[in-house]
Write a structure and sequence with these properties.
The protein contains four helices and nine strands, in the order βββββαααββαββ. By secondary structure, it is α+β, with helices and mostly antiparallel strands. Strand 3 and strand 4 form a beta hairpin.
Length: 201
């Protein structure tokens, strides 16, 4: 299992990020950061999509309540409506743009100090996020695109492309013609479409 994989631990009924093995146990870290805990590797399983989403929403709510990032390694989030928070966040963004890591760290430290002193770790007008189930469906108003690229060649790929087409049949016809002309046999095909989220219930 790769580090960072989100898994469900039935013993604690929590979703955590897989970190590593320690003796007979595995170490899991709360989503959004926090103290790690030990779990039985025989009982954990990969978290479902709904479990991952719920854990993410819970972590976002925790950060909103605290006014600070739950994980000190993550940058603090400005409190909405606070001019000082916004000013420090702008200073941090400017430092990032200038690739000045020291100034970025300074801005984060000042932002955390300000939030502890002025907001008490509790942002005014905090937002609570609630999990809402959605279905992802293809957007019927947009036309999907199909495309093929010739990747035949001994030293480098041919690189010829069918260009975007509206049906697989058009792409296959281009492949046949290209093979007749070049004797190339290997292609990489791609498909692109648009999707929309529809709220369930």
């Amino acid at each position: 299992m790769e580090p960072g994989t989100l898994v469900y631990d039935p013993a604690t009924r929590k979703v955590g990020e897989y970190q590593d093995r320690t003796g007979p146990y595995v170490m899991l870290r709360p989503v959004g950061g926090g103290r790690e805990w030990q779990a039985d590797p025989a009982r954990i399983r990969v978290a479902t999509l709904e479990e991952r989403l719920s854990a993410g929403v819970r972590a976002a709510n925790d950060r909103s309540r605290e006014g600070l990032s739950a994980d000190p390694s993550r940058p603090p989030v400005p409190v909405p409506g606070c001019a000082v928070c916004e000013e420090l966040a702008v200073r941090r963004d400017q430092a990032r743009a200038a690739f000045d890591g020291s100034a970025v760290t300074d801005a984060n430290v000042l932002l955390r100090q300000h939030q502890r002193q002025e907001h008490g770790g509790e942002p005014a007008g905090r937002r609570i996020f609630r999990y809402v189930p959605y279905s992802i469906v293809q957007d019927a108003s947009a036309v999907p695109e199909y495309q093929a690229y010739c990747v035949s060649g001994e030293e480098e790929d041919c690189g010829a492309s069918s260009g975007p087409r509206q049906t697989p049949a058009e792409v296959e016809e281009w492949q046949r013609r290209h093979t007749q002309e070049t004797r190339h046999l290997r292609y990489r095909r791609s498909f692109a479409d648009y999707a929309v989220l529809e709220r369930q219930g």
